[in-house]
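Researcher: We are triaging several targets before committing to wet-lab work. For this one, the compound of interest is zinc ion. I'm pasting the protein sequence and the ligand SMILES. What I need is the predicted three-dimensional arrangement of the protein with the ligand bound, expressed as structure tokens, so it can go straight into our comparison scripts without reformatting.
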Amino acid sequence: MQWEDMRKYIDSIQLGVGRDQVYWGLNGNGRFSTKSMYKWLENPLSGCHFRWIWKAKIPLKIKIFLWQLSQDVVLTRQVMKERRWPGDPKCSFCDNTESSRHLFFTCPVAKVVWRCVGMAL
Ligand SMILES: [Zn+2]
């Protein structure tokens, strides 16, 4: 059944004669910006905004990681502590608790990394 659905979907796609173009859906102008990606990722880490992950044309391991991040189940020190890990839940770079949000967005080191990514792109 899924095969037939996929065939119908593919048959409905109209290909143009021009060159393919990459379009970034998180910006109104279609261009990639780290600001738009950061803003999107900074949205609530849990919720129902994760379905796009499975439709994205990115490697499966990245999809799985982003899904884990959206569900806040990445094995951070905070998550491991909740699973009775005996270690210290503090971030390796600062004194805050290492949660997904902290590790990827609010930690001073994460902010520097995001800035470097922005400059590199
Ligand atoms: Zn930190």
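Researcher: Any quick observations?
Model: The helical segments are 2-12, 34-42, 51-55, 60-70, 77-82, 100-106, 108-120.
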